Amino acid sequence: MKKIFFVVLLLYFILGVSGELWEDNITNIEDSKTTTDITETFNFPYDLDDITIQNMIVEVNANDVDVGGSDYDETIYIYNTSSNYNLLGELPIGTSFRKFIITDIINNTYYSQGHDRLALKGNTPYKSNNLNIVIYNITGGTQEINDTIGSNKKNWILNWSPDNISKIEITVRKRFGGDFVSVDGDYIGILDAENENTQFTIDGDNATNILSDGVISIKVDKSNIGNDDKIQVNTISVKVEYINNTNSGSGTTTKTPIPLISYCCY
Question: Which CATH class name applies to 17-69+177-243?
């Protein structure tokens, strides 16, 4: 019996096996057609030192998903004068957030006529973006603003004059019209309105970054556009697939990943 166990264990280490590495799902989600966002956490039980991740597949089962939800480009402008907006940058389709750093404060005149306000606007009506602005003083200290911005111009009074500001960091996080899904805070897509099941595939490099700390946080961000925008999330599933790793020592040996949870036989 011990010999058989030893042979099986040896084959487990030596033989090259690829395919599905790990799968988990949460089915007892307490949700019943509300506008409350759902966040679930998974614990990944493998050490990634000797594993090459092929991809990670996230699947969400939900009812009454928004029909009108869609992805879109967002263009962000920064206010210069009462009649002119300078292009600050764009958030392309599939991009959930972007940080803009402004260092040439005075020459770019990124201020309204009173030189004490910062103002921005987006290009998409009725859809808002989460906005974070950090203003750095030359002599130290920061002023932080957290707000939302839609298609209308927004103004914020600054604590310092332009010549006392060393840098402005503006982070815009896109808010979509549909019910969208994020993993560890990064947008991965919108729930399909035509099907109860929506599947997202995350490539190997991004999946490895997500799995590296052993914790996967998946959020279903329900759109709040419209009073009847209520969906029910039933199940969230995660599957991780891997490919053979080549042992650099022999050049040919492959091995199957071993779970962090170890088992011992007596």
Answer: mainly beta
CB count in 10 Å sphere of residue 190: 21
Using 50, 70 and 90 to split pLDDT, how confident is the model at 263? very low
Q: Is 74 helix (H, G, I), strand (E, B) or coil?
A: strand
Task: With a cut of 70, say whether residue 15 has pLDDT above it.
Answer: no
Q: In what order do the strands lie in the sheet with 154-157?
A: 84-91, 74-81, 117-122, 154-157
Per-residue pLDDT reduced to its tens digit, 137-179: 888 889 888 887 766 667 777 777 777 888 888 887 765 556 8
Report the topology of domain 74-173: Immunoglobulin-like (2.60.40)
Delimit the domains of the chain by residue range: 17-69+177-243, 74-173
pLDDT tens by residue, 75-92: 676 654 445 556 666 666
- Distance, first Cα to last Cα, the chain: 12
CA atoms of 127 and 91, how far apart (whole Å): 14
Q: Which residues contact 181 (CB under 8 A, 6 or more apart)?
A: 58, 60, 187, 188, 189, 190, 191, 198, 200, 218, 219, 220, 221
Q: Which distant-in-sequence residues (6+ apart) come within 8 Å of 161 by Cβ? A: 115, 116
3-state SS string for 185-224: CEEEEECCCCCCEEEEEEEHHHHHHHHCCCEEEEEEECCC
CB atoms within 10 A of CB 5: 10
Give the mean model confidence (pLDDT) for residues 213-227.
Answer: 79
